Amino acid sequence: MTSKTKSVAFFGASTGVGLAALKRTLAADHKCIALCRDPSKLTTIFPSESTPNLKVIKGNAHDISAVSQCLQTDDGHIVDVIVSTIGAKPRRMTVDDPDVCKKGAATILNALAQLRSAGITGTPHIIGCSTAGFSRFGRDVPFVMIPIYYLFVSVPGADKVVMEDRFAQSGESFTIIRASHLVDGESDKTIRVGIEDPKTGPECRAIGYTISREDAGGWLAENLVLKIDAKYLNKNVTITY
């Protein structure tokens, strides 16, 4: 591994934003480790013979043993970057697991603590995928979207707020991505970016309706994994069209 090559752990990369970010990271020739309950979802897309930089580990993002495996490089260090895009699946008016993100964040942080107590070193940058609509510093979605977020996103949104807080209060380097309403389809649309400090509030705002999963994942990879601008460190970052 060269000094320019990063090691990146992915949680929730079998679909959506995470998959798009994984594709872009692999294309840039970085080392990736992905945790997946069904590894075939990734190995079908990324055959091992043509994707030597990807290691897929079978397991659940709430299993500290599996998560710990995903956070370690082959040479015995903690990975450089952690990307968590896990989320609950819709189920009628709620979701299948209303605590999936908060439990995932706790598991990652506990796994890091255990690895360090065992003498394994590293200071990763944690990237957590959240959602717009739940800022503590005022409205961050279009006014007409507020009822939709209230009716359909309040439960998973509350879970993501706890996730955000856990990463922000952990002492680890972090960036929270707050995507506006996710749709399908890569595009060439301009992505606008808002930045919020978790303690002091907005530094600049970006309020919009949608962004595609593919574009959100590509932006995440390009701006937070392949390189990282200091203005995004330890911030909540909204991305939208």
Secondary-structure map:
Elements: E1 7-11, H1 16-27, E2 31-36, H2 40-43, E3 54-58, H3 64-70, E4 81-84, E5 90-91, E6 94-95, H4 100-117, E7 125-131, H5 146-168, E8 173-179, E9 181-183, E10 192-197, E11 201-204, E12 210-212, H6 213-225, E13 235-240
Helix pairs in contact: 1-6, 3-4, 4-5
Protein name: NAD(P)-binding domain
GO molecular function: biliverdin reductase [NAD(P)H] activity; riboflavin reductase (NADPH) activity
Family: Belongs to the avfA family.
Could you describe the 3D structure shown?
With 241 residues, this protein is α/β, with parallel strands linked by helices. The chain has one domain: NAD(P)-binding Rossmann-like Domain (Rossmann fold, 3-Layer(aba) Sandwich), CATH 3.40.50. It has six helices and 13 strands. The strands form three sheets. The chain has a nine-stranded mixed sheet, with helices on both faces. A two-stranded antiparallel ribbon has the order 5-6. β7 (125-131), α5 and β8 form a beta-alpha-beta unit. α1 packs across α6, α3 (64-70) crosses α4 and α4 (100-117) runs parallel beside α5 (146-168). The radius of gyration is 17 Å and the shape is globular. 41% of the residues are buried. The mean pLDDT is 95.
Overview in brief:
With 241 residues, this protein is of the alpha/beta class. It has helices at 16-27, 40-43, 64-70, 100-117, 146-168, 213-225, and strands at residues 7-11, 31-36, 54-58, 81-84, 90-91, 94-95, 125-131, 173-179, 181-183, 192-197, 201-204, 210-212, 235-240. Pfam families: NAD_binding_10.
